[in-house]
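re: ur question from earlier - yeah i can do the single chain one, its not a big deal. heres the input i used so u can compare w yours
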Amino acid sequence: MSEITYAQAIKEAMSEEMRRDENVFLMGEDVGLYGGAFGVSVGMFEEFGEERVRDTPISEAVIAGAAAGAAVTGMRPIAEIMFSDFTTISMDQLVNQAAKMRYMFGGKAKVPMVLRTPGGSGTGAAAQHSQSLEAWFCHVPGLKVVIPSTPYDAKGLLKAAIRDDNPVIFIEQKLLYRRKGEVPEGDYIIELGKADVKREGKDVTIISYGRMIPPCLKVAEELAAEGIDVEVVDPRTLLPLDKDTLIQSAKKTGRVLIVHEAVQTGGFGGEIAAVLADSEAFYYLDAPIKRLGGLDIPIPYCPELEKNAVPTEEKIKEAIKTLMKGSAKA
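and the output i got, formated as tokens:
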């Protein structure tokens, strides 16, 4: 095991897959000589050259469309969109082309592409560079959606995504890039669609993902001192979703809090809540399922307002204590 950052884990995954398979290449704005907007691909241009680490024009539609076209002809592109907010410009290529091709060609066509994109707030980048749009992609049949929370998960999930024969949206939350964790040296894969129980507990389940996992784990440790035993479950991939692990945890604890950075209205937490409510877990619940998402506002530029636009440790702790009282009110 070596301790590396989330960003380094992503670079390792890409580099190892490019060495393993000559059809894998990286493309995007400033991914070459500059090394990516967040420094993830630093050094890759020097190792693989301009044919396999390709700087593109400033056109997200072109990036996504070229990736889909390359994928359907046998390549395995990794396309980077500099900020997830700008996937909006590439939605036609992703939603109407990449996601549909395998189905519309009766399975004869494969679209093995990965769209990597940094998402979320916390860097002072304001309303147009700080959104969490994962629920948009989860609404589209044909796409897979991955949001890793640790360096270990980031590397194993990205390698699995690159080897997958379907388009995968791989969302990297910005505040995790410099976070360190233990990562095995060499090749390993984390199967898409397998959740991970980050912390075992018996009193209440938190279901969360991405950069909300660290504060959820911190709150769980603090509440343990108060006699509240919190289980933290990370789906890791939203599509495909490991429903069984979520249901079993809900049955075990009888209380569920769903936490995500994205705005609460229309957020993926609503889908998780529906999955649990439609399952046998419903009959084991001692309190209504509770969601804690971001406020329904654009992300502010002001640091203090930005911090409080998404779930904080204080809000997570308050929501858990409310659940322990068996009340649906915050």
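The mean pLDDT is 96. not sure if urs matches, ping me
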